[in-house]
Specification:
With 308 residues, the chain is mainly beta. The protein has 3 domains: 86 residues, RNA Polymerase Alpha Subunit, Chain A, domain 2 (Beta Complex), CATH 2.170.120; 90 residues, YbbR-like domain (RNA Polymerase Alpha Subunit, Chain A, domain 2, Beta Complex); 89 residues, RNA Polymerase Alpha Subunit, Chain A, domain 2. Helices cover 12% and strands 52% of the residues. It has 4 helices and 24 strands. Strands 2, 5, 8, 10, 11, 12, 14, 15 and 16 form a 9-stranded mixed beta sheet that branches. It has a 5-stranded mixed beta sheet with strand order 6-4-1-3-7. Strands 22-20-17-19-23 form a 5-stranded mixed beta sheet. The longest helix has 19 residues. It is elongated, with a radius of gyration of 39 Å. The termini are far apart. The relative contact order is 0.10.
């Protein structure tokens, strides 16, 4: 014979009532206390096309009330402050923070929230392609130097607040170590941005190749006569000292082909009249040869009127 509906599963129903009564007796016998907590702030429903800017609080202070046993069993993250941002608009906005916006365990009541409101600034979102600039760390083996480097991809898309995207000029890489290298170094490294308000849209890494080339060598070219350029026809002049030593810098092959007469030392006296001047010495050199030092760096030039 089928039991009436009210008596079906009677044992389970009586057990549930008994457990509820036991729980009520346990809780009602505990002391009610208050406790101050610093809890995380969770932001929800940020509108598409908007970016949060400036300093955003990550925690708020709350006071909670409940049975001492319940509060003592709470762990980090059991209480969370939640702000719904779906109504946010561009500009600076103020969002109230009330006890009703707290996510708390059963039996816990929020009695106070500090601060009572949170100010946030919103800006339109923007995106732009920005060049990747490889960072290099260390020194190659003796006799070698770091040459050109390249990143693949050369640019990546950066997303963030419009003003920050407009100002960003480069995306950095993790340093590529070239310590002791004698040949090109290729590494896949992570990308990063100095501005924390910006983020990479898709690409998170790049392959960087750093060229390692033989170091240029130097060669001293002694006794190069100092020429006087731009001297007016009605004037004559002499330099003291009349010659200088020039240090040329280039590849080993280029310096082996260098003729001393290819280095021309000079001072520019254009527009100068009679008198004594201290002038900087310059030097011309072949296209594949650089001048790293001239000694002395300046000479005294005496200019007089007329010619003997």
């Amino acid at each position: 014979m089928k039991r009436p509906w009210g008596f079906q599963h009677l044992g389970l129903k009586l057990l549930s009532v008994g457990l509820a009564l036991l729980l009520w007796m346990t809780v009602s016998g505990e002391e009610t206390v208050e406790r101050g907590l610093r809890v995380p702030l969770e932001l929800q429903q940020v509108p598409a096309g908007l970016e949060l800017t400036g300093d955003i609080p990550t925690t708020v202070d709350v006071r909670v009330r409940g049975a001492s046993g319940t509060l003592s069993r709470m762990s980090a993250g059991d209480v969370v402050a939640v702000i719904d941002l779906r109504s946010a608009r561009e500009g600076r906005r103020l969002f109230p923070l009330t006890p009703e916006q707290m996510r708390v365990p059963f039996g816990v009541e929020v009695v106070q929230v500090t601060p009572s409101a949170v100010a946030m600034a919103f800006e339109r979102s923007a995106a732009r392609q920005v060049p990747v600039v490889p960072a290099v760390d260390g020194h190659p083996a003796p006799g070698f130097v770091v040459g050109a480097n390249r990143a693949d991809p050369k640019t990546v898309e950066v997303v963030g607040p419009e003003s920050a995207v407009k100002n960003v000029s480069e995306v950095l890489t993790e340093p590529v170590s070239v310590a002791g290298a004698r040949a090109p170094v290729t590494q896949t490294v992570l990308l990063g941005l100095l501005d924390s308000s910006l983020r990479l849209k898709n690409t998170r890494s790049a392959t960087v190749t750093v060229q390692i080339v033989p170091a240029p060598v130097e060669r001293a070219v002694h006794g190069r006569a100092v020429h006087l350029r731009g001297l007016a026809p009605s004037l004559q002049a002499e330099a003291t000292p009349a010659s200088v030593n020039v240090t040329a810098r280039a590849s080993r092959d280029a310096l082996a082909r260098l003729d001393p007469d290819d280095i021309v030392a000079y001072v520019d006296v254009s527009g100068l009249g009679a008198g004594v001047y201290t002038l900087t010495v310059h030097a011309d050199s072949p296209q594949d040869v650089g001048v790293s030092h001239i000694s002395p760096e300046s000479v005294q030039v005496r200019i007089i009127s007329g010619r003997n």
